[in-house]
């Protein structure tokens, strides 16, 4: 460490990982307003925050699999925080949002735009509702950022039409509810079809349309579904869908 530099803290690095999850890969740079905002919050320079973002990118297995390399001088604490966060998707996203709210001098409810009228005034039920809403927002942000706000089947990039869908459903796998490798970005129609098992994605990232749809006649059936059969999905920049989750959807949810 150079003279005059201060050591990074665990809290600061958790906030950087939080931002890493929510930014498209091409925006991990010092001129990004979100990077500048975080730098101001933790009294760091935008360049130093961007550097840590790239450090974390170097630890991302999805990027390694694509041959993308980040910075080479990752610290021991960088590794520890990465492993802590990415092995605890069930708890760390919410904890990181609460930490961010503290640095922003606000509440986690206000940070995530949860109206007070939607919540009980206090108590365990309120906390459970807030946690669920915050987690859902974090998951959506992470998935859409990974897919660059683009439907992985059609290429639609109108964010209002996009859903952050689960491969293993929310109610089936509690531990991986917030794992971005259990998510895919889909437009609302194909999200419904995926959820119902009328389309699936194979472990080699190929779209498979149910025979129940393919046997239907008519232009709409082909335009909305048939023409995508056997195509590859548009891959995310990171958080590649986990092969085991895709196998589950193929074997347990798909309608043959």
């Amino acid at each position: 460490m150079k003279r005059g530099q201060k050591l990074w803290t665990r809290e600061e690095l958790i906030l950087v990982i939080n931002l890493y999850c929510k930014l498209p890969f091409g925006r991990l740079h010092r001129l990004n307003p979100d990077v500048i905002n975080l730098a101001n919050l933790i009294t760091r320079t935008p360049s130093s925050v961007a550097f840590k973002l790239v450090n974390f990118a170097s630890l991302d297995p999805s990027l390694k699999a694509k041959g993308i390399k980040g910075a080479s001088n990752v610290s021991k604490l960088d590794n520890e925080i990465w492993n802590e966060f990415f092995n605890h998707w069930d708890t760390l996203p919410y904890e990181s949002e609460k930490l961010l709210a503290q640095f922003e001098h606000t509440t986690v409810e206000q940070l995530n735009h949860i109206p007070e009228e939607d919540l009980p005034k206090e108590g365990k039920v309120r906390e459970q509702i807030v946690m669920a809403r915050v987690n859902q927002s974090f998951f959506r942000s992470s998935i859409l950022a990974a897919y660059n706000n683009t439907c992985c089947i059609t290429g639609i990039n109108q964010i209002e039409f996009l859903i952050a869908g689960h491969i293993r459903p929310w109610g089936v796998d509690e531990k991986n509810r917030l794992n971005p490798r259990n998510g895919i970005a889909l437009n609302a129609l194909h999200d419904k079809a995926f959820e119902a098992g009328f389309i699936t994605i194979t472990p080699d990232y190929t779209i498979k349309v149910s025979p129940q749809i393919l046997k239907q006649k008519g232009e709409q059936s082909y335009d909305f579904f048939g023409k995508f059969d056997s195509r590859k999905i548009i891959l995310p920049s990171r958080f590649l869908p986990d092969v085991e989750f895709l196998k589950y959807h193929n074997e347990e949810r798909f309608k043959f």
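The CA atoms of residues 11 and 34 lie 17 Å apart. The mean pLDDT is 91.
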